[in-house]
Each structure stands twice: as C-alpha cells, then as structure tokens.
Amino acid sequence: MMNSRMMIANIALVCGLLMVGTGCESWWGGDDKTDTPEITDVPGSITDSETGKNVTGARFEDTCKKVDGITLSPVYFAFDSYALAPSETAKIEQVAKHLLANASHVLVVEGHCDARGSAEYNLALGENRAQAIRGHLANLGVDGNRLQTRSFGSEKPAMAGSGEAVWKMNRRGEFALYQK
Amino acid sequence: MVLALLLCVGVGSQVQGDPLQISIVKEGAKKDSVSLAGLRASGPNGQLFVQTLTRDLELSGWFKVSTGREGTITVVGGLLETGSGLQTSSKVTWPGKNFNWSRNSASKAEVRQAAHTLADEMVKQIKNETGMASSRIVFINRRGSNNGDVYVCDADGGSMFQVTHDSAGVIGPQWGVSRNDILYTSLKPGYPTLLRQTIGGSRRPLASFKGLNTGGAFSPDQRRIALILSYQGNAELYVLDLGTAKVTRMTTTPSGAESSPCWSPDGRSIAYVSDRDRAPNIFVVDVATRVSKRLTVKGSQNVNPSWSCKDKICYATLRNGMFQIAMMSPSGDGSSELIPGQPEGSEDPSWAPDGRHIICSARNTLYILDSLGDPAVRLIQSSGNWRSPDWSK
C-alpha cells in the first residue's frame, strides 16, 4: 500500500508533468512544438557586478491588476528627442496628482516613436521618453518604486499612415495604471 | 561578361508561399570559371545538388559557372541516387591542384547541405577565403503594427523556416552560439523581453527586468552577451558574463539611449549605437577599460553596426533623407565608403561570414550586397515584409 509521502511525491510528479505537457505555465512556452525540445541555457538569476545585488524582474504588468477607466493624456515629443516640452509638463503634473492621491496605484510609463528610423534605436528612444517622464514624476514627489517603464519603439503607432501629422501623434508617452 | 542564371526550386516545405524564383546577375569582381559538366546527375536529388552548388558558387562571388566543359576549375564525379538521398563522389581540379570530396545524403535537406559544404570547401581550398554557403540568415516578417515573427533560411534563400508563431512585435533577431540558437526581443508579454531560443525547440527569457531588455549579442568566445538594459533607470549597454551570471555596465549616459551592440572579432570591443550627442551615431567601447569613442561623423543618423571578420564595420547611414549602407574602419579615422550597387533605402546590414558580402533589407525584402562590387542579389522572393536580417558567423 502506498504511504502518504509516496502519494504526495506522485501527485507532485503528475502535476509537474501536466505543467510541462501543457506548456501553459508561461507565455513563452507556446513554441515547444518538438517532442524532445532542447533546454535553452540561460542564467536563473543575474547579479549586478557593481552593486552585488540581484537584478530584479518583478514587473507591475505581471504582479498587479490593471486599472481601467481613468484617462491620462499622452505626452508628445519632438522628432528624435526625449526632451519634455514645456507644453507637455502640465499633463505629467496631472498624473503626479493622481498618484499622490491614490497610494495603492502604481504606474507604467509607455514610450513610443514614429515609424522612421531603425527598430532597435526606436526601442531605446521610446524607453528614454518613458524614462524622461518617469524622472519628472519622481521630481514631483512620486516614489520611484511606484514607477516603471516599457518601450514599444515604433511597433504600436496611435495613428496609421505617414507624414508629420501622423508622426507627431505617434511620438508619445502613455500611462498605464495598476493596482498594487 | 554578364552571366544570368535562372533557377526554380521549391521553398522549404515548412513555409507555404510562392515558388522561389531565383535570378542571379553577378558581374563586377574578377571570377574564376568553373565547369560542373563532369558531374553526372540523373535523378532529382542529383539535379538538386547541382542546382544548389551552382547557385552557391555564383553567390560566393569568386566563381562563374560555365555551361560547357571548359573552366579553370572542373568538378567531375558521380551522383548516385539512393531512393531518398544521394551518394556524391567528386574531384575538384584547378591548375596544379585538386581535392577529392564525397558525401552521403539521406534527405533533400541533406543534399542541399552537402552542396553548401562542397561550395564552402572550394572557396576555402581554391581562394583561401571563408565561404558562406553553409551559413544561415535569421530575420523578421513584420506583418503590421506589433505583429511579426522570426524566420530563418539558408544563405541561398532556400530552406526557409518560421521559428516563432507569436504574431507579436519582435525586434533585432541575432544568432547565438550555433546555427540553431537565436536571441531576439519580443513584445508579446506587453513589454520588451530578451529571449533565447533553440530553432525547432524551446525558448527562455534571458532578461525581462523592469524597463528595457534588448540587443542580445554573443561574444566571439561565446561566454558573454552584450545587451541593453534600463533597470538602473536609463537605457545603457551591459555585458552579461554567462559563467558568473553577472552584468557589468559599459556606458554611463544619463542623456543617451544605447542600442544595437555587436562585438569585434577579437572580443575586446563592442560597437553600438548611442544618441548621447543628440543624433544616433556608432560608438565603440573597449570592454576592459569601458572607454567609448565615437566612430561616425557623416550622416544625420548612423545605426545598426555589424563588425566583419576582416575588421570592417558596416552600418546604415541616413544621408539626404535616405538610408544607405556604408562601411568604415573601426580605428575611427572618420573615413567611410558606401557599399556599391545597393538598392535605394537599404537598412539593417549584417556581414556574411566571408567578410565580403552583406545582407540588408530594402523594399520590404532582403538583398545580398557585395563590398567588392558585384550587383545586389534579391534573396527572398516570396511576398512579405522581410526585415532585420542577421547572418550567422
């Protein structure tokens, strides 16, 4: 007769196999289409050589619930620039006001570019647009731990087409609120 | 002399699409004539071998294949059909020298692979150069906004294979340590994540920290990866040591974004893009000292560097409102030259393992350019929006 420890071990084994078998434990698992997939070699965790601390991977998108129904106006940028124009800072002040009044909300600032230029460079430019807004929010008194960034480069334009009227609407920072 | 060759072969069975219509017109750089008339091919596998070898030799840029028996170089031998595959036994002869070459191939894919191997062996033995026929190219089909997937093909455009099935934003695929190992940035989870994937196998996130995770480039010694991260608050260039799992920051540019790292062949330097001086330009950093210097001076934008085995950096430069491919010395002497014969609006260059040819994207497809002056060859004929090619080393 099976003792309880063996039973638990068997249940754990079956659960493990189920997870591996369905491949649905992670968003990236969908491509395990071969019968004997090779395990790709990546480090389990990564340490910063200067600080000696683990580089953390906790993202609000994965750990918090999205907050819908609150409209925060996009911030627009000049071509190939992540400098905040004086005309745009009032929008960032509105966002700071919301965060200071809603302590349970955290924010992901999302950077976007127009379609021109290299996809790789645009991803970095979009990140720096998001970082410029993040820095301004921190200057306005929002705790930096409540602020994260993500860049979509030129992958998610707000408006389709080409020409300056379209491009200027696509060079932007957007805001996504999450509940802690 | 203009030599035009028209071949029709099927696209790899994995990808549905138009039949691959291949048209090569190569002239310009000096070539040796090769006769393959002594290769007796009776069945379909033998014909596939000769077709593949012919195209590989033409694409190599060193040879022109003659239709008759005359040639400075002759390849003679037998191609014996074995049902599903081919037994190849051949002798390659050129003035004063020769070598024997034989191979058993069990499938159509192996027949093509065998032809690639012989083509590379001829380039190596006859020209004392590295061939490119056995190498592969990874690239993207960008179907629309935030909708793309990673594909690979052989250096002749054949054996195309769709690697991912995400229909999501994907950026900058690059080769890892083997011809089955790739890195790319996916936007599928709703933020940029750097992934490592075995072609036809599994994949794992290499970096999915807060902020930016992109630009994975393996060092020549295969022990380090150059990547762009922003977990410290600004996009910077880092090097990840796979042995210690530690990252070290290479740049400190509070007012600059870094992108597109690539290693020098000796593994001591990394070329990358930075806009610390306002517009994006190519810089090079000494990995040991972490001292950077700017290389490009001309052009309103300079992006996508690729460093060849012959110590040249090619990149895309925006001049007069149009991207073009140029190459320069990594010494930073300020001189650069445009690659001849390129289509208008060429972007995303990547050196072939021969240090002579460059794959790039233009007009929604991929072209092979020749730094020695042969005309551009269109690599992908099937319809799509083919971008961001990277050539395996």
Describe what is shown at a glance.
The complex is a heterodimer of chains A (180) and B (393). With 180 residues, chain A is α+β, with helices and mostly antiparallel strands.
**Strand residue content of chain A:** 15-25%
- Measured distance between first and last alpha carbons of chain A: 48 Å
Helical/strand content category of chain B: mainly beta
Indicate the low-confidence ranges of chain A by residue numbers. Answer: 1-24, 31-37
Strand arrangement in the largest pleated sheet of chain B:
4-3-5-6-7
Number of strands of chain A: 6
Key terms:
heterodimer; A: 180 residues; alpha+beta; 60s Ribosomal Protein L30, Chain: A; five-stranded mixed sheet; disordered N terminus; B: mainly beta; Neuraminidase; 2 domains; four-stranded antiparallel sheet; 2 helices; globular
Report on this model:
With 180 residues, chain A is of the alpha+beta class. Chain A has a domain at 60-179: 2-Layer Sandwich (60s Ribosomal Protein L30, Chain: A), CATH 3.30.1330. Helices cover 36% and strands 16% of the residues of chain A. In chain A, helix 4 (119-139) links the parallel strand 4 and strand 5. In chain A, helix 3 packs across helix 4 (119-139). Chain A is globular. The termini of chain A are far apart. Chain B is mainly beta. Chain B has two domains: 4-127, Rossmann fold, CATH 3.40.50.10070; 136-391, Neuraminidase. Chain B has two helices and 31 strands. In chain B, the strands form eight sheets. A five-stranded mixed sheet of chain B has the order 4-3-5-6-7, with helices on one face. In chain B, strands 10-9-8-31 form a four-stranded antiparallel sheet, with no helix packed on it. In chain B, helix 1 (44-60) packs parallel to helix 2 (108-127). Chain B starts with a strand and ends with a strand. In chain B, 53% of the residues are buried. Mean pLDDT of chain B is 91; it is low at 1-22.
